[in-house]
Amino acid sequence: xxxxxxxxxxxxxxxxxxxxxxxAQLARRPGLAVIIAGDDPASHVYVRNKVRRAEELGFLTxxxxxxxxxxxxxxxxxxxxxxxxxxxxxxxxQLPLPxxxxxxxxxxxxxxAKDVDGLHALNAGRLTQGSGGLIPCTPSGCMKLIQSIIPDxxxxxxxxxxxxxxxxxxMAALLLEAKATVTQTHIHTRDTRFxxxxxxxxxxxxxxxxxxxxxxxxxxxxxxxxxxxxxxxVEGGYRIVGDVDFEEAxxxxxxxxxxxxxxxxxxxxxxxxNTLNAALVRQGELVSA
Length: 289
Ligand SMILES: Nc1nc2c(c(=O)[nH]1)N[C@@H](CN(C=O)c1ccc(C(=O)N[C@@H](CCC(=O)O)C(=O)O)cc1)CN2
Known about the structure:
The protein is α/β, with parallel strands linked by helices. The strands form 3 sheets. It has a 6-stranded parallel beta sheet with strand order 1-11-8-7-5-6. The protein has a 3-stranded parallel beta sheet with strand order 3-2-4, sandwiched between helices. A two-stranded antiparallel sheet has the order 9-10. It starts with a strand and ends in a 7-residue tail after the last helix. Helix 1 packs parallel to helix 10 and helix 6 (about 135-145) crosses helix 10. The model has no long low-confidence stretch (mean pLDDT about 95). The chain contains 10 helices and 11 strands. The protein has helices spanning about 10-25, 40-55, 70-85, 105-110, 120-130, 135-145, 170-175, 190-195, 245-250, 265-280; strands spanning about 5, 30-35, 60-65, 90-95, 155-160, 180-185, 200-205, 220-225, 230, 240, 255. The structure holds the ligand Nc1nc2c(c(=O)[nH]1)N[C@@H](CN(C=O)c1ccc(C(=O)N[C@@H](CCC(=O)O)C(=O)O)cc1)CN2.
């Protein structure tokens, strides 16, 4: 058996098309501001791609580039300035931040109504209660990918490998809200392979290339690979690899996301969707994201 490949680029195009239509209805174009601190090359690629997509949709964009040695107070000042600007609907602080800057304090400073990353405690809390709010982009994209294969997840067993605030935890909350039975693993979990083998839907969000082997996968399961690790090539440059051993997995799984071209493009599309939703709420067109 060869797994169906879930095409993240194609699904992202559809999401972006809908976002474009929604944005065209607004009196004022959505505004997205991105803060990036430091010189991490991958972060710069992601930010450039986000800004490019936003501009293609006609959004107002602004990138605030800060040095690696910026102090936390200065980052908080930038966030406060953006919070106060009416034409900015969405604020995104690219992660990781430099080590000396406390990520949770910066997230807490973002106006929850403009928190298009869904990482403010208020939005994270609303997600666990199923009471709306802005949802982190990668898990939101994963849900769309999963539901493109199984629209109704009631009673399916989902296993989430990884427990980060940005992917693992919100992913588990979304799956629970969709009535799946959820198991979450973390760094101290014993025998992750055994747990993974029980999954109808397996999501790996760890950032360890090749962690998930073919014998970790239940036959016909849906496999969502969130890993995007840059591995240097001998001839120079790099390639992007996921957490899943794709060649082994495709012989066992029912459907699988590729890396690249799976979750990554959906992350950016869902950021655009969140920015539109934040703009709709702020312009009084929607009660809640
Ligand atoms: N504030 C945030 N920081 C980070 C997030 C996030 O959601 N919010 N997620 C990741 C990185 N990320 C977005 O910022 C991201 C990663 C990968 C892709 C993507 O499109 N990947 C492509 C390959 C791109 C390449 O060639 O490098 C793919 O998988 O097809 C988009 C966004 C950490 N930080």
